[in-house]
Amino acid sequence: MPQNIITFNNVTKVFPGVTALSGINLDIYRGEIHVLVGENGAGKSTLIKILCGIYSCNMGNIIYQDREYAPKTPLDAINAGIRCVYQELNLLGYLTVAENIFFQNMPSRYGLVNFKKMNADTERLLEEVGLQDVSPETPVERLGIAQMQLIEIAKAISVDGQVLILDEPTATLTPPEIERLFAIIRKLRDKGVTIIYISHRLQELKEIGDRVTVLRNGKNVGTWQVSELSIDNIIEKMIGREITSQYPFNDASPLGREIFKVEDLQVKGRTRGVSFSVRSGEIFGVAGLVGSGRTEVMRAIFGADPMVKGSVFLDGEKLSITSPKDAVNAGICLLTEDRKNQGLILDMNCIENITITDFLRVSRYGYLLKKNEAALVGDLFKSLSISTIPLKQRVVSLSGGNQQKIVLAKWLFRNSKVIILDEPTRGIDVGAKYDIYFLLGQLAEAGAAIILVSSDMPELMGLCHRIAVFSEGKLVETVERRDFSQERLLTSAYEEYLKDSQAGVVA
After folding, report:
1. What structural domains does the chain harbor?
2. Parallel, antiparallel, or unpaired: how do β-strands 283-288 and 274-279 relate?
3. DSSP designation for 349
4. pTM for the complete prediction?
5. pLDDT digit string (tens) for 19-33?
6. First and final CA of the chain: distance in angstroms?
């Protein structure tokens, strides 16, 4: 008979005007991988934050290791053996990798920090999570998001604990990195550690989970053995409605003429002569391992990073792009992979975040026309299925899926011709993903050129007409839809890395 390590009894959490959790009853077994799923706003994060001492519940209680448990601070949870790797990274950029990992427990000698031991312990942890090429003394601010995610995981496993919570741990990871993470999770489970795993990538739970609990609108829909449910069953329980096709690709939609072209683009130290073109109505996918140069190319096209050389053409005209302002004025937009730090102004409301891209549409003689502004944004909200959110609500309070919709809405408001999306569905729920997929299809049918960068191979294969694969800063292959397969895409993604390793062996 499984032994409970955590029991939630009638746990309820109410925020002003919103019931986030309503009478949650849930048992978590010792030494299991328990998956929590649900749409954004279903209550997953709130439940975890109560367990981690960030929130307290209004009603109910928690039993942890046979004792009543009511942490008042995150430190109380850590001291109790509960660690959490949050979706939003919690690292200090100006400190080194080693200092971030051991920030709360630095080894000392004679009253001073023992940097030699700390760096050696960090090297062991980095190797375990697949970052053996990263120095312990590297400042975190120099690393990419995927590397930071793995450092968070290394920090969590640096100390022994009873419970490890992982919130969207694979959102920025490539398939090989995910496999390594799953091996770490299984190893921890075999040692008796309880894993609470939150993910919107439902295919993962079939591979890693023991049991799954579905939350919807702050309530526990039920708990099942993972083997008892199909992905379609889980989706239906999560959203309470049927989705007929996860990826709404329109085979019948004709492609127009070439409207966007990149020639011999090079970013210093990152890419090597990248060339590609996109047609009107096309969803053009971009795949590659983390660090392959795909994001750097998109940032250079948008003017966020300088090009060493290369040319960008729109409607046959060569563009001069030296800043994001130049790109926006030309009709090119970029949804960055880091929506909170680079895509939104969190303390501003929904309307302000959206209309900031084109004030001329909502102003006259230098004055904002508030009624016009609200009407135009209201129409966008309807098209993005977020019409239930108040237009003047601050975006910091929105779920990840709705925040991403606001980022998309601001560029739709600008009527951009070329829409570049870098990991647009990272960390958002299946319902919000479907809304974004459907809208991308509509934009393509209306004649826009869509460039979709994603680490999710099924997503790329389900949505795109063609997929360009990057490896070690080089665009190695562009694959037509009829030839899509995960094996082919991954083989191409590793092509240049394998060449480098073979050259090293020969040398």
Report:
1. 4-239 (3.40.50.300), 258-506 (3.40.50.300)
2. unpaired
3. B
4. 0.60
5. 889 999 999 999 999
6. 58
